[in-house]
Amino acid sequence: MVAPTPVAKALLLLAALCVSSAAAQQQRTLNQAADGCSNTQSGRWFIADDRGMVCPRDSLNYGTGCCTDGEQHACTSCQVDDKCCSQYEYCVSCCLKPENKPEQHMGSLFRGRNKPETGLWSTPFDYCQAVCRTTARSTQHENAFILERRHCFSKLGRPRVPVLPAPPLPPHITMVAGGPGQNCDVACALKQMVCRGEHFVGINDCNSLRAKFMCEAGCGESAPDQTEFPGYLEGSAPKHQRPAFCAFLPPFAPDTAPAFNCTRGNGSVRRLCPCEPLPAAVVAAATQQAAAAEQTAGDSGGVAAKEADGASAGEQQQQQVAAAVLQVEQEQQQQAKNEVVEE
Ligand SMILES: *[C@@H]1O[C@H](CO)[C@@H](O)[C@H](O)[C@H]1NC(C)=O
Ligand SMILES: *[C@@H]1O[C@H](CO)[C@@H](O)[C@H](O)[C@H]1NC(C)=O
Q1: Where is average pLDDT lowest: 148-162, 201-215, 228-242?
Q2: CA distance 168 to 171
Q3: Nearest CA to 97 among 129, 42, 51?
Q4: Alpha carbons 249 and 143: distance in angstroms, whole number
Q5: From CA 247, how far away is CA 57, in angstroms rounded?
Q6: Rounded Cα–Cα distance for residues 83 and 86 (Å)
Q7: Global pTM?
Q8: Planar angle of CA 22, 34, 44, nearest 5 degrees
Q9: Residue from 195, 228, 263, 269 whose mutation best tests the ligand 1 pocket (most atoms within 8 A of CB)
Q10: How many CB atoms lie within 10 A of CB 134?
Q11: What segment(s) does the record annotate as region Disordered (predicted)?
Q12: Pairwise CA distance, residues 242 & 14, whole Å
């Protein structure tokens, strides 16, 4: 007898796989003919079968359980880098793509996560269905970014940028919608409040944006360096800037500081701002200070000079109040610190 050739070995292995997968597939006889397909069954619009075909429901052959047309190993709605997709069926199809090596990975996932006694998934299709199912991790956060692409076939099982669950907005923080181009220091100061940068994380999402803006053109991520967001682009914004679109800053990794910035304003962006009301005494002091500053500027012709810069008198006044509020606020904080030290 000759030693088995590599081809023969491969055939033996394949036969073994078929036997074990046949057992797993017996439960799904409804969708299977003798040489039929297993499929994802529950999709409302799409079905993926175990050959990696995705098709609309009406292209499914209910006799065989196979897609009669559609696309094989389709990665529509999936992102290459983190292997996360917004459509479950495409996640399964993409996961089955040979270059994603499902046979190799299925040896590393137990049916019950972290429970070796539950055994491994026996076919690439079963494995892919399992990994693509929504993970608890990614449904925790009511965050549009996550909701969009929550089906992942990566080991990590979640979109590449791990998202911190946003802490709830403290009751003393108010969401304020700024005017076009206005920064949050000014937007908050106009309401006799102060911008609290550390609370942006609690309003950096579509739900918060939609509470203040129409977001007619939709809601999605901005570029990471567009720190004038979260905010809304005015309907009158230039076309290339996506008028009527709401944008939020991409979720950040736990170890990286978010780039939220109270002082940035830009063009036709209306910012969403986390503001904290100031104590009445602070407001009174700030108003007084602003009035005094205005007086001085008026006396020296400063307002006229600044107006030539393009800012209206109203804006100048707003900014002065804002600056005064911030200054008084900082002085108070410093005072509080000093008192602590003295005690
Ligand atoms: C915030 O934005 C302002 C105005 O664009 C800029 O001068 C400042 O450097 C920014 N701060 C940070 C921390 O990025
Ligand atoms: C303002 O927004 C425009 C369009 O998004 C961008 O090109 C520009 O760099 C921004 N300016 C600042 C100061 O961030």
Answers
A1: 148-162
A2: 9
A3: 51
A4: 12
A5: 34
A6: 10
A7: 0.49
A8: 85
A9: 263
A10: 15
A11: 294-343
A12: 53
Burial-class residue 107 by CB neighbours within 10 Å (0-12, 13-18, 19+).
Answer: exposed
Which amino acid is present at 197?
G
For residue 221, pLDDT over 50 is answered with yes
For the ranges 26-30, 223-227, 242-246, 255-259, the lowest mean pLDDT is seen at 26-30
pLDDT band at 67 (very low <50, low <70, confident <90, very high): very high
| C-alpha dihedral sign at 180, 185, 190, 191 | positive
275: which strand partners?
Answer: 174, 195
Residue 304, token pair as written in the block: 């006229």
Asked whether 183 lines ligand 1 (CB < 6 A), one says: no
Q: Which residue do the tokens 């709401």 mark?
A: 246
Residue 135 sits at φ, ψ, to 5 deg, of: -95, 150
Contact 221, 186 (CB under 8 A): no
70-73: long-range contacts at Cβ-Cβ below 8 A with a sequence spacing of 24 or more? 73/97, 73/98
- Best residue for ligand 1 mutational test, from 198, 264, 271 (most atoms within 8 Å of Cβ): 264
Beta-bridge mates of residue 49: 39
Count of positions (residues) in the chain: 343
| β-strand pairing of 269-277 with 193-195 | antiparallel
Q: How far is 214 from 246, CA to CA, in rounded Å?
A: 8
CA 221 to chain centroid, in Å, comes to 7
Domain boundaries, the chain: 33-160, 168-277, 280-303+312-335
